[in-house]
Amino acid sequence: MEINTPAVIGPGEFFPVVGVGPHEKPWPTGAQYDPELLENGDRRNVLDHYRYWTVEAIVADLNTKRHKLQIAIENWQHDLNIGSIVRTANAFNASYVHIVGKRDWNKRGAMVTDRYLTVLHHPTIAEFAQWCAENETPIIGIDNVPGSKHLEGAQLPEKCVLLFGQEGAGMSDEGIAICEVLYAIEQYGSTRSMNASAAGAIAMYHWALQHLPRKI
């Protein structure tokens, strides 16, 4: 039996995260369980299905059902939005996340969700493009630049990598040049663009509506 602990506000959260306390004995058996979590409680932001599991066991289970969607983010200025995009990539169980540019990236917004993903680093746009070519993965750019098509009516490939630029600066010229196609999210208010992490979430959900089963 699981014992709920009081709700607390975690760092970077806008709503309470309710964990579970120490697991009532007898403990469940299985290699996936972490004795320390069973003993002390599990207050991580994970699905109930993964409560008390080790990180390694969760990753192994996720690896059996990764989606063909991949996410890439340009990292030249330590943009704080990168972490939020990574967190959304975890929510959609993307097969890979690519950090293009500087190796060190702002992980605060990821809320440790990068532990459950395969994160690859590419120092240059050219090296990232080469990886995608060798792995037969089309690069789809998401940015509202001249020549971008409307995302709303676009059919995205099931296997693809969505490439995002930085907050404010957007995609680099080199990043734009390697994209098979560019899509923009329609804007209806006065602002020219939306937050990069919000755009990432919209684009990933657009892909999911086309390729993942819809639950009723």
Description:
The mean pLDDT is 92. This protein has 2 domains: 1-63, no CATH class; 66-211, 3-Layer(aba) Sandwich (Alpha/beta knot), CATH 3.40.1280.10. Helix content is 26%, strand content 17%. The protein has a 7-stranded parallel beta sheet. Helix 3 (81-91) links the parallel strand 1 (67-75) and strand 2. The two termini are 29 Å apart. The protein is an alpha/beta fold and 216 residues long.
Tell me the strand percentage band: 15-25%
The residue-averaged pLDDT reads 92
Low-confidence stretches: none
Q: In one word, what is the shape?
A: elongated
According to CATH, the homologous superfamily of the largest domain is SPOUT methyltransferase, trefoil knot domain
What percentage of residues falls in helices of 4 or more residues?
A: 25-40%
The value of Rg in angstroms is 19 Å
Do you know the CATH architecture of the largest domain? 3-Layer(aba) Sandwich
**Number of discrete helical segments:** 6
User: Between the first and last Cα atoms, what is the distance in angstroms?
Assistant: 29 Å
- Total strands: 7
Q: Please trace the helix and strand order, writing H or E for each element.
A: HHEHEEHEEEHEH
Strand order of the largest sheet: 3-2-1-6-4-7-5
- Main sheet record: 7 strands, parallel
Class of the largest domain in CATH? Alpha Beta
Number of domains: 2
By CATH, the topology of the largest domain is Alpha/beta knot
